[in-house]
Amino acid sequence: ESWPFTPAQPAPDVLICTPLFLGRFTKGGCVKDISLFQSVDTLVVDEADLLLDGGYKKDLEAVLTVFRRSGRQGAPTQHIMVAATLPNRGSGSVDAFLERRFPEALRVRNSLMHQHLPGMQQDFIPIGYDASTRDRLNMLVDKVTEMQRDRASRGGEEAVDVGKTIIFANTVNSAKAVANALFDVGIPVVPCHADLRAAERISNLDAFRRGISSILVCTDLAARGLDIPRIATVIQFDFAPNVVAHLHRVGRAARAGRAGHAINFYGKDSEDLVSMIQESLKVAEERGSDGGLLEQAFSRNRSLRKKLRKQERSGQDTAGRATVPS
Fold this sequence. Notes:
This protein is of the alpha/beta class and about 325 residues long.
């Protein structure tokens, strides 16, 4: 594919793109005109732990290979890898890959990396082993209705300051069931999940950002890369499958020094993970730091990812019961 920039239409000073975009010009790590990459001073990879894993990895590795080759023929490009979470799960982890690829890299991290934000209050609500999908939805509707009632009772500017709410589900079907349940009782929400066209997702996120709707129902599509102001509450209708996902979800609130509230519904399959998270919160409250307890939990519940994909294909929720039809 032809490089889109020419002397008549030069490249901008800053290009923001996906690995897939640059991957089109690398041909698996080789380019016809390596000077295209030699002119780049700095390569920044945001959400590095996500982009160097799964479906993004092949494209980004090809891009990194081309930059390494271009650096041998001219001034090397500075690489900056940015991540809110960078778990080390052994030799196959992203952290281990970066250690091998950039052994002399300078690592910078703040004291809150891999920990909950200080302004975040969390409630953990067990849903019970025998709870049906309808029972779980009713629990959620009751909680959101209570929040809406409290918001309305405040009135004026104080009501506005209550902020926005994000509700996370683990699957598209579960997100649809949540949105429908809230719509049915007259609570307006906007959805964001993979079954929506990109234009719809963008429009819904814009409505949420502008405050036209104060509740977003989503999957992990909205767990990263979004800086939407004044998110006060995060609700996990389905508990996160691992600590990394949990940190990114609850990290949507309590940003920029603001207070935040996370309401976490969890079932029997998440009890061990929740116990470790609760223990880390207890230790952090007592000592000012959890002493790395969350990092120790990074490897827990990884097998749930495969389970969730299987359930998504069969139209089930995380408890193994059929979801409410949309």
